[in-house]
Design a protein that fits this description.
36 helices, 790 residues, three-stranded antiparallel sheet, Rossmann fold, seven-stranded mixed sheet, Lambda_DNA-bd_dom_sf, 434 Repressor (Amino-terminal Domain), 5 domains, NACHT domain-containing NTPase, P-loop_NTPase, DNA binding, alpha/beta, 12 strands, elongated
Length: 790
């Protein structure tokens, strides 16, 4: 039943104009507040006929009696409901009947997913992973860059910045239960649509909101189906949808009026720009008219330029470790079509490899569901994370920038100045390179806008000035934020890249784009800085020939300790000792082995240098070194020397682990003696071993002996090792030398990693670098002279 229109009387118009003036509103602002177009407001003030519902809303907004404005008796009621009146029991019966009729349609709409690069559809309930939301929108918080840096303890927690640590993560279902009107915001591929589909399925089954009927509307399709202004009508859209399921329009209106629908409006950001205002106005009008229903709207987080009265906004949180694991185990069963047992076994293998230190860059991307899905595809095809990181990032960018929209047939508006995806990548390369070199993980909006303006100035055929330049740079920033999700607001007016690893990737792309000696020298100047290491690896993996940059790196490394005579002497010993060992392994790998052995046996605390994890450099050169008698012997002897130092320290400081060091000393020494082949060395070591008192639970007795004779015993051991094995020296590096050794180890490890990651290195350069690795300057010159003369 359609209500007849109403007209304002002359007295009513005067009262309305006075009320409008008192509120200091214009007619346009009144229309905006009501969520309607300006036309009915203009008609109202002109005394023309306006729809009954619209008339009443205008009067209520102005604080006036609609009856008085229309010169009607005060006892006239506004019949906003259909004539038929339902009692509670009748409504409940109607809800059950309608849900039954809608059952199949909702299942068809929402129970399957078309996933990226997967040919078959996937059942939503087989893959769905519960989401969490943040109750405060991080981009709306007023924080300073210094506040964000306080949370930035290490690169591994980059995704937890911007309020994540300080906010309670609320289960998505709980958020919907708490609020009758909810807007779910999130980054591209964060699972917004999947969550709304899940709500529809659960409601359809009666598991969630059992007293309501699910209605799922893709706003993109709603906008496409509206060919005229009159068709931007959600009531009619729902009525037609219900009518196709055999539900009369009168029943639909009753259910809406009684608030019996769970209305899910998906993808506000996907509505074409030319229709966005009309769709927004209609959502405002509809949600205010049928306010008793429960509403959930989804949109990308940076696209919320529209605010709806009465709606609470929440933000989809990134996946945490538990959610990643749940998703992965489901994926390898539901998507990869493995048996449950096999799928979960592969899922566990995926998770174990994901948590390895070298896969930090993959973990950072895996917090976004769409990227985690694609990483699972890669793992399934390659039986591991063997994809070149640069290729991994490039594919991730393509997914975020256009492929994810392509498979859903979402057409985004062209960026200001019609930037192509390639132009946007070049812009992001420039932004990343400048900010990363300045160690800016977070940057003010104005800085981003200026860099965008500078880039636009370099494009051919674009000549922007003044206001137009301001508008276009704002449009470019918003497009990158909304459409691609590659830049995110961490707080009001403060931006960062969505993933730190992508900032590094864009930085490396810019360096490759320049490809000049000057850029290589600039990059190499950051070689000792940990946060630049991934940039080095990405750069060499993208270069067609890495000879030049690797040679510059090697020259820089060789000069690092060149002026320190003691460290040069140490490197000379390292070469001499390694050369004395008969083994099939590369000389550089053996040098790396003894370099780490020296560190482990250092008698001073802190140790000679703090290496990262065991034999990283040696492993990078040759992989796992299999058992070699001579290397094993020296390793146990070095371990024995280390135990002596540890035991001295433990007894001196009365540590509780002294007994453990006593047993470790005995084990290492016994194994070393067993491996000795030289009869003279074996004899002197066995004699030294007999001097040790019996090692049992009587620690006090052993301690007394150690304090009386332990130092002398340790000196004897060192003298024997120096005489027979050329090891066991007191190097006694000072703090500066220790720091230099640490840097030297790290940059050599980086150089070897770059060799192994490079797309191409000429055999000559590879061999020269490898043969001069971990050598003193004099030895390097000797090797190079051999190359020159050969």
């Amino acid at each position: 039943m359609i209500s007849q229109g109403l007209r304002a009387s002359p007295e009513g118009i005067r009262a309305a104009k006075t009320a409008l003036t008192d509120k200091t509103w214009s007619q346009h602002k009144l229309a905006t507040a009501l969520g309607i177009t300006r036309q009915p407001v203009s008609k109202f003030f002109a005394g023309e006929s306006v729809s009954r519902s619209c008339f009443v809303q205008i009067c209520q907004q102005l604080g006036l009696s609609w009856q008085k404005v229309a010169s009607l008796p005060e006892d006239v009621a506004f019949d906003a409901t259909p004539k038929a009146q339902f009692k509670g029991a009748d409504i409940d019966t109607l809800v059950r009947e309608v849900r039954q009729k809608r059952q199949d349609k909702i299942q068809d709409q929402c129970n399957t997913m078309q996933m990226l690069d997967i040919s078959q559809t996937v059942q939503l309930m087989d893959i769905y992973t519960n989401i969490n939301v943040l109750e405060k929108i991080t981009s709306l918080e007023w924080r300073e860059i210094s506040d964000l840096l306080k949370d930035f303890k290490s690169e591994s927690n980059f995704n937890q910045l911007g309020g994540y640590k300080r906010q309670r993560r609320l289960p998505g279902l709980e958020a919907v239960l708490q609020h009758s009107k909810l807007i779910v915001l999130g980054k591209p591929g964060s699972g917004k649509t999947t969550f709304l589909q899940y709500l529809a399925i659960e409601c359809n089954k009666g598991e969630f909101q059992p007293n309501r009927i699910a209605t799922f509307i893709r706003l993109k399709e709603f906008a496409e189906d509206a060919k005229s202004d009159s068709q931007f009508n959600i009531l009619n859209y729902i009525s037609e949808e219900f009518l196709s399921c055999g539900i009369e329009k009168e029943s639909t209106k009753i259910l809406l009026t009684e608030g019996k629908l769970l209305i899910l409006l998906d993808g506000l950001d996907q509505v074409p720009a030319e229709k966005a205002d009309k769709v927004t106005v209609e959502i405002r009008r509809f949600t205010q008219s049928f306010y008793k229903n429960k509403f959930v709207i989804s949109s990308r987080i940076a696209a919320q330029k529209y605010r709806f009265q009465g709606f609470t906004e929440v933000e989809v949180a990134d996946f945490d470790q538990e959610q990643v694991e749940v998703f992965v185990k489901k994926w390898f069963v539901a998507v990869a079509l493995n048996s449950r047992e096999d799928g979960e076994a592969i899922g566990n293998l995926f998770i174990n490899q994901l948590h390895l230190p070298e896969n930090q860059h993959i973990r950072e991307l895996a917090v976004t569901p769409i990227l985690l899905h694609w990483i699972c595809i890669v793992f399934q095809i390659k039986d591991g994370f063997t994809l070149n990181p640069a290729k991994l990032y490039e594919q991730a960018l393509n997914i975020l920038m256009f492929r994810w929209d392509e498979i859903r047939d979402v057409k985004r508006d062209r960026v200001g100045c019609n930037l192509t995806p390639l132009s946007k990548k070049k812009l992001l390369c420039k932004l990343a390179f400048i900010t990363f070199e300045q160690e800016d993980y977070f940057f003010e909006k104005e800085k981003v806008l200026q860099l965008i303006a500078d880039y636009l100035d370099t494009l051919e055929g674009i000549n922007l000035e003044g206001t137009q330049l301001q508008l276009d740079r704002e449009a470019v920033l918003k497009a990158i934020e909304v459409q691609d999700g590659l830049l995110v607001q961490r707080a009001q007016e403060i931006y960062s890249f969505s993933h730190l690893t992508l900032q590094k990737y864009f930085t490396a792309r810019k360096i490759v784009e320049i490809s000049q000696v000057q850029s290589w020298n600039s990059l190499v100047s950051h070689m000792t800085e940990k946060h630049w290491q991934e940039v080095f690896l990405l750069t060499v993996s993208m270069l067609s020939n890495s000879d030049e940059i690797l040679q510059i790196m090697k020259q820089k490394i060789d000069l690092l300790m060149a002026s320190d005579e003691r460290l040069q002497y140490f490197l000379t010993w390292l070469r001499q000792k390694s050369s004395s060992i008969s083994t099939n392994y590369k000389a550089a790998a053996v040098r790396a082995f003894y370099l780490v052995c020296v560190e482990q046996s250092s008698c001073n605390r802190p140790r000679a240098f703090v290496y990262t994890s065991g034999y990283d450099l040696e492993y990078a050169l040759v992989g796992n070194i299999a058992f070699d008698p001579e290397l094993a012997l020296d390793e146990f002897l070095f371990s024995t020397v280390a135990c002596v130092s540890e035991l001295d320290f433990a007894f001196k400081h009365s540590l509780n682990d002294a007994l453990d060091h006593v047993h470790a000393l005995a084990i290492a020494f016994d194994k070393a003696v067993d491996l000795v082949i030289d009869p003279k060395l074996k004899q002197v070591l066995q004699k030294l071993k007999k001097q040790l008192p019996p090692i049992d639970s009587n620690l006090d007795k052993f301690k007394d002996w150690w304090e009386a004779k332990g130092k002398m015993w340790g000196e004897q051991l060192r003298n024997i090792l120096i005489k027979y094995r050329n090891i066991g020296y007191y190097w006694q590096f000072n703090e500066q030398q220790k720091e230099l050794l640490q840097q030297y180890y790290d940059v050599n490890k980086l150089l070897v990693d770059c060799l192994n990651s490079a797309a191409y290195v000429s055999p000559r350069v590879w061999q020269e670098i490898e043969e001069t690795l971990l050598l003193a300057i004099a030895d390097i010159e000797r090797v190079r002279n051999l190359y020159i003369n050969s």
